[in-house]
Amino acid sequence: MKKTKSTSKEEGVGSPSRLIDARIEELKCWRGNLLARVRILIKQADPDVVEEVKWRKPSNPAGVPVWSHAGTICTGET
User: Whole-prediction pTM value?
Assistant: First the structure.
């Protein structure tokens, strides 16, 4: 399956970008603020970055934000 860049106009309720938004909102402390700042920097550095949420499981239902472009760039493990 080919990955495509998602934009705010294409995003559905369960889209990775919306899930990352929810995770940032859920972390109402320095961790959420830092995750939001890092996300902005990543998008500025690589406008074609793909946002994903991986490794969702019962012990971590929100999963882990991941940014990639021809391979993983970084994760937003909090």
Answer: 0.77
Q: What total number of domains does the chain contain?
A: 1
Tens digits of residue pLDDT in 26-42? 998 999 999 999 999 99
- Does residue 40 sit within a domain? yes
Please give the residue range of the domain that contains residue 32.
16-75
Q: Are 55 and 72 in contact (CB under 8 A)?
A: no
